[in-house]
Amino acid sequence: MTKIAKNTICLWFERDAEAAARFYAKTFPDSFVGAVHRAPGDFPSGRQGDVLTVEFTVLGIPCLGLNGGPAFKQSEAFSFQVATEDQAETDRYWNAIVGNGGQESDCGWCKDKWVSPGKLRQSR
């Protein structure tokens, strides 16, 4: 029996929630894209079939990507902190994030191209 999460992380995207979710699912283990919810009809800032929300899981944590438009931007106020087993795993994630349009940041942080900052640290 699958237990339904009582809390889901909601990430606001301007318009790329599905692309971000698919990138996270491809990059991290225990990650996948679930339901993709599309607009049933045209609406003021979009068209029928546009992706509205995406249900996805990153490292076992349920998330919802919301294509909410430009009203809010992602920032360092929220981030994924990923514990890695060794330097090779850290490098693999780092290279995937930075190599996919992301950027390096201060103190061992990097940002994906959607500006979801994250810290990669080795667990001991």
Overview of this protein structure:
With 124 residues, the chain is of the alpha/beta class. The protein folds into 2 domains: 8-72, 2,3-Dihydroxybiphenyl 1,2-Dioxygenase, domain 1; 74-124, 2-Layer Sandwich (Signal recognition particle alu RNA binding heterodimer, srp9/1), CATH 3.30.720. It is 19% helix and 35% strand. The chain contains 2 helices and 8 strands; from the N terminus they run βαββββαβββ. It has helices at 17-27, 87-99, and strands at 9-13, 32-38, 51-58, 61-67, 80-84, 103-104, 109-111, 117-122. The strands form 2 sheets. A 4-stranded mixed sheet has the order 1-4-3-2. It has a 4-stranded mixed sheet with strand order 5-8-7-6, with helices on one face. It is globular, with a radius of gyration of 15 Å. The model has no long low-confidence stretch (mean pLDDT 89).
Short description, anyone?
The chain contains two helices and eight strands; from the N terminus they run βαββββαβββ.
Task: Record keyword descriptors for this entry.
35% strand; 4-stranded mixed sheet; 2 domains; 124 residues; Signal recognition particle alu RNA binding heterodimer, srp9/1; single chain; alpha/beta; globular
Give the termini separation: 32 Å
Number of strands: 8
* CATH homologous superfamily annotation of the largest domain: 2,3-Dihydroxybiphenyl 1,2-Dioxygenase, domain 1
Which CATH class of the largest domain applies here?
Alpha Beta
The general outline is globular
- Give, in spatial order, the strands making up the sheet with the most strands: 1-4-3-2
Roughly how many Å is the radius of gyration? 15 Å
Oligomer: single chain
Q: Stretches where pLDDT falls below 50 for ≥5 residues?
A: none
Query: Which architecture name of the largest domain does CATH use?
Result: Roll
- How many DSSP H or I helices? 2
Most strands sheet: 4 strands, mixed
What number of domains?
2
- The chain-level mean pLDDT equals 89
